[in-house]
Amino acid sequence: MAVEASSLSARRRRGAIRAGAGGPRYPGWLALPAVAWYALFFLAPLSIMAVFSVATRVGFTEIVYSFDLDNFRYLWDPLYGRVFLRTLGLAFFGTIATLLVGFPVAYYLARYARRRTLLLLLIVVPFWTSFLIRTYSWLIILDRDFPVFRALRSIGVLPEDLQILYTSKAVYIGVVYNYLPLMILPLYAALERMDWSLVEAAQDLGDSALRAFRRVTLPLVVPGIAAGSLLVFIPLMGEFLIPVILGGDLTVYAGNLIGQQFLTARDWPFGAAIAMVVIAAMTVLVLAYARLVGGEEQHGR
User: Fold this and answer.
1) C-alpha dihedral sign at 174, 180, 182, 183
2) Which residues contact 257 (CB under 8 A, 6 or more apart)?
3) What residues does each domain of the chain span?
4) pTM here?
5) CA 136 to CA 106: how far, in whole Å?
6) CATH fold for domain 56-300
């Protein structure tokens, strides 16, 4: 009896080890809601956009569904190339600027802040307000007659002809303000899970604070940097509201260009072609970035 019990226990242990190694198995139908959501709200709209991108506009509003690549050929015009490069520059600027501003904030929250919950709440609170309202508020703040600007001009700190509103500077300010929480929160989540005794051990072994940060902290926070960068970079590639409101729609980005084609020019096939090119370029960049970050993470380990 004891032998049989011991054999049964050993089989159970081996089964538990195999289950742990391969992970628990769940029935495939549990993924159906997620798959249906993905197909309905991502694949279906993307397919419709792809169909429109190869269609042809006849007259002002009529669309003939065919397979015409002329919409993509028009994009070889240097004018559209400058728009795409400008959009890429805005996305890179927003990602780097929010990272440079957000990393010290997240680091302080994760390691030194005492009233951490309150500070996190202050970061999240802007999300309770409409994105549109938050952007419109900067029309008041960046106006040259705002009291702060008037006071600085009166004492000679700022020139009389200073104009920030309806320029690219206003767009950059709006981008950093609106997207900063999307960078801070993933960084904080990665830093908050860190074992800070590793940093202290590195410093005890002779590393300076900067070298310990580079060798210990930075590799461990790479997943947070990757998540925050993607959360900022991807929507900025199609940003529409901030350039229209703070830039006065004077500087055209890809999002504005697509909006103009759909809402003003009524050229839906050309607008769909621009959107497909932006999606394809963004996919390539995101995959390249993910591979680079994954390689850095493996190297850090």
Assistant:
1) positive
2) 80, 83, 274
3) 56-300
4) 0.83
5) 27
6) MetI-like fold (1.10.3720)
